[in-house]
Amino acid sequence: MRGNEINVGITTGEMLIEQGYRKYEGKDVDIYYNKEICIHAGKCTHGAPDVFKVQRRPWVLPDNGSSDNVIKVIDSCPSGALKYVTKSK
Ligand code: SF4
């Protein structure tokens, strides 16, 4: 398991939603975000500005960037506010 990837055997997307995360569904990657945990470090908005755009609704569009970069950026989120699930292609 990489930094913030969900290990589906232990943590599921449903469990994250119960913990207050919101799901943003993508083609290859689903992104989960919990605003209560975010410390506004800006790693996401700097690392993938087309995917994470604070002024836009929804502010997360998982398909607006390469899944490799989305994963890299989410793994760099220092608070754990962002999580992801990769889908098999
Ligand atoms: S990288 Fe994580 S902690 Fe930083 S702004 Fe994005 S979600 Fe919040």
Q: How is this structure best described in words?
A:
There is one protein chain. The chain is built from three helices and three strands; from the N terminus they run αββααβ. Strands 1-2-3 form a three-stranded antiparallel β-sheet. The chain has one domain (13-86): Alpha-Beta Plaits (2-Layer Sandwich). It has 89 residues and is of the alpha+beta class. The protein binds iron/sulfur cluster (SF4). The site of iron/sulfur cluster has 12 residues, from helix 2.
Blueprint of the fold:
Layout: H1 13-18, E1 22-24, E2 29-33, H2 43-47, H3 67-75, E3 82-86
Antiparallel strand pairs: 1-2, 2-3
The chain binds iron/sulfur cluster.
Quaternary organization: single chain
- Give the distinct bound molecules: iron/sulfur cluster
Mean pLDDT: 92
Rg calculated over all Cα atoms:
12 Å
How many β-strand stretches? 3
CATH architecture: 2-Layer Sandwich
Helix content: 10-25%
CATH topology: Alpha-Beta Plaits
Task: Report, as a whole number of angstroms, the end-to-end distance.
Answer: 18 Å
CATH classification, class level:
Alpha Beta
Principal-axes geometry comes out as globular
Report strand order across the widest sheet.
Answer: 1-2-3
Brief description of this entry?
This protein is of the alpha+beta class. It has helices at 13-18, 43-47, 67-75; strands spanning 22-24, 29-33, 82-86.
Keywords:
alpha+beta; 3 helices; binds iron/sulfur cluster; Alpha-Beta Plaits; 22% helix; 89 residues
